[in-house]
Structures are given as C-alpha cells and as structure tokens.
Amino acid sequence: MPTFDQEGGRPSPAAVSAVGLRKSYGEKLVLDGIDLHIPAGSVFALLGPNGAGKTTVVKILSTLVTADEGELHVGGHNLADAPQAVRAGIGVTGQFSAVDDLITGEENMLLMADLHHLPRARGRRVAAELLERFDLTGAAEKPASTYSGGMKRRLDIAMTLVGSPRIIFLDEPTTGLDPRSRHTMWQIIRELVTGGVTVLLTTQYLEEADELADRIVVLNDGRIAAEGSAEELKRLVPGGHVRLRFTDPADYRSAASALCEVTRHDEALSLSVPSDGSQRELRSLLDRLDSAGVEADELTVHTPDLDDVFFALTGGANVPDQPKESAR
C-alpha cells in the first residue's frame, strides 16, 4: 500500500514495492498475497513471529528465491525481468555472517572488492575507507576469527557496502549482540539512511523497530496484520491513558467530577483517563479541565508498547491488563 508525502498527497517514490506477493513451499503457504511500498531513504521494518515469512520476503526481494506470484520492483527494476540489475543496486546482510574467519578483516574487504570487479587501487581505497568508517582499522590485519560479535557484524555490513548499494536488506542484523554493540549498529543504520540509503530490516527486537523504523509491517501467518509508524501501531491496542496528578485535594476532586470514565487513585491524588494519546483527545481533555477551572500539576501520556502490539496482532498472548508504560 502506498505512502504519501505531506504536501498534496502524491505517492512517495518507492525504492521497493511488492503487489500480491505469494510464496509456497510444497503445500505450506508462506506468503499469502502481501503488498509492500518502501519509500526511498527510509527504514522499513518487518516484524512477526518465527515462521511469519519475514526472511522469505528478504530472500525474494534480494533475488535469492523466486516468488510464485507478485509484481515486484526493486530500485526501479522489475524483479522478474531484470534480476541482474536488481543485484547490482542492493546489499544483503543475512542472519548468519558472510565473514570468512580464516582471513583478515582487510582480506575480507578486498575479496568483496574483487567480487564487485573494482580496479585494484580503487578496491584498496574503498576497503580502507570502510574499515576506518566502521572503526576496524586497528583490527584490519587480524584474522576475523579473533573479532568480537559486534566487530564481526560491523565488518559484515562494511562488506555489504563495498558496492555502494542504495538499498540494503538487513535480516536480523543485531541478533546475539550485546546492548552496546546493538546501539552501535543502530547508529550505523541511521547514518546510512541519512546518506540516502533505503533499509529493509527484519528484527526480533521490538525496541529496535521502535528506535529505527519509519514504518513497520507486522506479518502473521504470511499476511500483513498491520502497518504503520510505531506510534500508529501502538494506538491499535487498548490500554492507553493519560495520567493527571494534583497536589491540591480540592482540584483533584473537581477534576474527577468534571471528567468521565476516570480511574481514581485517591492516595496519590491522580486520575487515569482512557486515551489513545492523540493530539485531538489531549486537546479535548485539556478543554474539559479548563471549563472546570482546574489545572493539573503533572500530565503524562501512557501508551502500549510494541510488545503489546506484537502479542495482540500475532495471537501470541492476550494484551496485558496493564500495559508497560513509557511516559512522554
């Protein structure tokens, strides 16, 4: 489904698009007619439980697997008619590292330069620049087998960038990394997108999609269960509310009388008001307080997080009665 710009509703140019994408393995239907529209220069995340079809989408769009049906375009090329042109413009980092542990980091980079048919001098220059960019210069002459998980993952992405791809598929790029290495990878991805690169990301970490993705698709049983920004998806799940705190007991009682469907917390002098956190609902709430001549000492918006969205949309569990709260 297309996304639109904010000036006149024109469709944003797509780096990747899929219409009616279907794939089966024998009698197992893996992708059941999904549509994707990924604007250029954005991060697009695929979420879903194991077996939802995320990796199959990446394999098809990166020409590693053939779709059964679907109109597919990557980088302006029809995937069925021009797979070589598609391959020339993309980079792929899979769940398992493509790094050769038996050779050095620099040799891994130069091997990729040779595979991209770069002239020797240019290949060495590109390799050196990328090793420096990913803070691997000091380890360039060491065997990759000595690298930490975070270093190896950085080398993996550096190798992906040797051919200067404008579209990159990252299939669970931070799985198994410690929190510091994961945050380093997030910064690298942000820098790539700032430079105009389009990233299609699959991840097991919902926080990762929340941090990075401009748009998120939740896959379940080979179909799209929902699509939107992280904030839009959070509003699909009930449990959001606004919490009002007061220091004056009289103001607290007046606000409780003026507002409908509130949950009172008498000891804390606070009220919880059901809300999706939208600007419209917040304005309405503030107008009702103004009409009652009451001003809250503190207002916080609490919304369900992507964990709650994931469980609700994929049927893994019921939505919790009390969602995790992150005040904004």
CATH class annotation of the largest domain: Alpha Beta
* Intertermini distance: 30 Å
Number of domains: 2
Q: Provide the low-confidence segments as ranges.
A: 1-10, 317-328
Pfam families: ABC_tran
Organism: Streptomyces pimonensis
Membrane topology: Peripheral membrane protein
GO molecular function: ATP binding
Please characterize this protein's 3D structure:
The chain is elongated, with a radius of gyration of 24 Å. Helix 3 crosses helix 4 (120-133) and helix 3 (105-115) runs parallel beside helix 5. The protein starts with 13 loop residues before the first strand and ends in a 14-residue tail after the last helix. A hairpin with a 2-residue loop joins strand 4 (69-74) and strand 5 (77-78). The strands form three sheets. Strands 6-7-8-3-9-10 form a six-stranded mixed beta sheet, sandwiched between helices. The chain folds into two domains: 14-228, Rossmann fold (3-Layer(aba) Sandwich); 241-302, Alpha-Beta Plaits, CATH 3.30.70. The chain is α/β, with parallel strands linked by helices and 328 residues long. The protein has helices at residues 54-61, 83-88, 105-115, 120-133, 149-160, 179-194, 206-212, 230-234, 249-258, 279-291, 306-314, and strands spanning 14-25, 28-39, 43-47, 69-74, 77-78, 90-93, 167-171, 198-202, 215-220, 223-228, 241-245, 263-265, 270-274, 298-302.
